[in-house]
Amino acid sequence: MSTSSISTPRLYGPLPSDPDEADLWERYQAFHRARGNDLSVGLRLGDLLTDARLSVETYAWLAPARRILPGFRPPSWTAREAMVAEGFATEADVERWGAAFARIDAAEHRPWVFPPTLVAVGRRASV
Fold first, then answer.
1. What pLDDT is stored for residue 110 in this prediction?
2. 69: Cβ–Cβ under 8 A, 6 or more apart, which residues?
3. d(CA 11, CA 7)
4. The pTM of the whole model exceeds 0.85
5. What is the H or E stretch that residue 57 is in?
6. Average pLDDT score over residue span 35-47
7. CA dist., res. 14 & res. 8, Å (int)
8. Rounded to 5, what percent of the chain is helix, strand, coil?
9. For the chain, where are the alpha helices, taking DSSP H only?
10. Residue 113: helix, strand or coil by DSSP?
């Protein structure tokens, strides 16, 4: 089994431009971990293919740079109701996070986002 580990999700996650947005991201990760989800699995695709005794034909990271437009909300915001229902946030947290997005929306300087897509293709060895 591979022993690869990712010590900092900030290498591939969003780079929040507001401390409250950063708090939402941290809680969103905890919410997923509690559900048994692994938000860093894409970073281990090469090892997973190798561990399955496949040859890695392609392993690529695609992350186009884009300005965040006013009104954009990340998946963590979409999960807010489930996060409250499961005890990872309160209604006060949701209001605080909403205010953070309102500040970001109103900002003259638009933050950037680098949404990653990781792609890996593995093949069985020819016999």
1. 86
2. 110
3. 9
4. no
5. strand 55-62
6. 93
7. 12
8. 45, 15, 40
9. 19-34, 45-51, 75-78, 80-85, 91-106
10. strand
